[in-house]
Amino acid sequence: MESINHTLFLWLNAPEHPSVLALTLATFFAEQLIWVVPLLIGIGWLRGSEGNRKAMLVATASGLLGLLINQAIGLAWMHPRPFMTGLGHTLIPHVADSSFPSDHLTLWWAVAFSLLLQRQPRRISIGLALLGAPIAWARIYLGVHFPFDMFGAISVALLSAWLTLRAAHWYLGLSFRLATAIHHRLFGNLIRLGWVRE
């Protein structure tokens, strides 16, 4: 299996001298696009209905659980990144920790799959899920992940999205009340002006 992983990596990894366009796109997908997740959740909370806000909380829980599962996997089984074994070309700096599964992609897909399972907002969640593919490609292209790291990420993301939705009755009520109280404390003036939904 590891030989297949290495073969796929070398097929997808950047050449020694990639084009400026490919490098720019890959770097954007690999490092910058992830900021869409907190931005989307923030906007969904500030402008959304109660239902949308609860969906954002469940999606946040899914992302956090996915990252927690990844940490446990990394502690139990250390899988070196390509550059740690001298394989391929590495075009962005990265700490030399366990590569499996990809934290970037786990967070991205855990949120996307959670929103998909909750069926709101449908178009955005489908778009998020599809954008996971170029993120996966970019992380491999730039030399910081193996292809199997992405399969691990999709598995963890699906599991965390399912678990946090199934267990929502245990935590959603309390977390919603707490988040709402913080929201009113932080945005009270803007709520009174009508700029932010109560």
UniProtKB/TrEMBL annotation:
Q: Where are the transmembrane segments?
A: 20-43, 55-78, 98-117, 124-144, 150-168
Q: Which domain of life is it from?
A: Bacteria
What name has this protein been given in UniProt? Undecaprenyl-diphosphatase
Instruction: Specify one Pfam family.
Output: PAP2
- Entry's Gene3D superfamilies? Phosphatidic acid phosphatase type 2/haloperoxidase (1.20.144.10)
Keywords of this entry: Membrane, Transmembrane, Transmembrane helix
Keyword Methyltransferase on entry: no
Q: Which GO terms describe its molecular function?
A: undecaprenyl-diphosphatase activity
CDD domains under this entry?
PAP2_BcrC_like
Domain Phosphatidic acid phosphatase type 2/haloperoxidase per the UniProt entry, residue ranges: 54-165
- Gene Ontology CC terms: plasma membrane
Q: What's the source species for this entry?
A: Sapientia aquatica
